[in-house]
Amino acid sequence: MKKLLNTLYVMSEDSYLTLEGENIVIVNGEKTMGRFPLHNLENIICFTYKGATPALMGACAERCVGMTFFSPRGKFLARVTGKKYGNVLLRKEQYRISDNLEKSHQYARNMIIGKLYNCRWSIERTLRDHGLRVDAEQLKAVSGELKEAVKKVETSHDLDSLRGLEGKAAEQYFSVFDMLILNQKEEFYFKTRSRRPPLDNVNALLSFTYTVLAGDCANALESVGLDPYVGFMHRDRPGRKSLSLDIMEELRGIMADRFVLTLINMKVIGMEHFQKQKDGAVLLNDSGRKVFFSAWQKHKKETITHPFLKEKMEWGLVPYVQALLLARTIRGDLEEYPPFLWK
After folding, report:
1. 23, 204, 304, 321: which could join 198 in a potential S-S bond, CB 3.0 to 4.6 Å?
2. Where are the beta strands (DSSP E) in the chain?
3. Which of 280, 278, 282, 281 lies closest to 269, judged by CA?
4. Residue 10: which of 26, 21, 29, 32 has the closest Cα?
5. Could you read off the pLDDT of 205-253 as tens digits, one per residue?
6. pTM beyond 0.90, yes or no
7. Could you give the CA distance from residue 215 to residue 293 in angstroms, rounded to a whole number?
8. Looking at the DSSP assignment, which residues form a beta bridge with residue 27?
9. Distance of alpha carbon 110 from alpha carbon 114, whole angstroms
10. Residue 150, H or E segment
11. What is the C-alpha to C-alpha distance for residues 54 and 38, in angstroms, rounded to an integer?
């Protein structure tokens, strides 16, 4: 089993990253801000315009250390990747499946089953723990609708019908998402999903978490030899990591949405961690990102038992394990792809 290593987050927009021997060094002007052994890292995420030396980027690519650059305000800029690993036959089979709409549907169907199952679990979790603080009848009704949606997805026949079922179920789920927010209701409320740009604190957190999780999924897919750009449900589009978005679907509710709800309900993050732009966009500020990533790293190190493998592992390894199961299915080692069904 893969070992979960550390992720280095560089938050200062004036920092520059260099390589000295086997260490990554963070420099701000004439001052050295930090020094970290490269072999202890699996990801480096930079919120800086100054960037990194070519030597460091090359070393990261050679050692399969993911390196992603964001603007200081959190806009994705670029991602450094190195050699393509894995059996070329695996990727060719992935491409053949993607070109076959019927086979693509079989994979996408299981991923959406996982998504709806986990979204329903999130609602049921709130009902179980806080049934007296919410509109239990409405939550039970939506939970029942998601249960029926899973049955319809299981019997869907093509990608178009699958997308329709997924879209309707997502609307039902988000129609009660505000009820899952139990504290700080004046500052954190959810009316509708707004993406580009996010228009309130909750949407800002959701969008940021999805971006981070998508990056983790892309790294996981590449580590097992799959192409993150060639998907099954999400079709080809220049620059879009379609397979990363596919595999993230089943993890959104359980790894991203629940994490956002925990940050809000446990008052880990507050109104002071956001800033509003002139165009109405709401974004995490510097202190907000620091709080976010501190909590995200702690969450990734929490231990669970994988529902399919029945093995103990850290939450941060779940995208890797699902990518591994997907690769095994594509190779023919598994009869069908087993989605992550959290219990």
Report:
1. 204
2. 6-10, 16-20, 23-28, 31-37, 41-47, 66-70, 76-80, 274-276, 282-284, 303-305, 312-314
3. 282
4. 26
5. 999 999 889 988 988 888 788 989 999 998 888 878 899 999 999 999 9
6. no
7. 14
8. 16, 32
9. 6
10. helix 136-154
11. 15
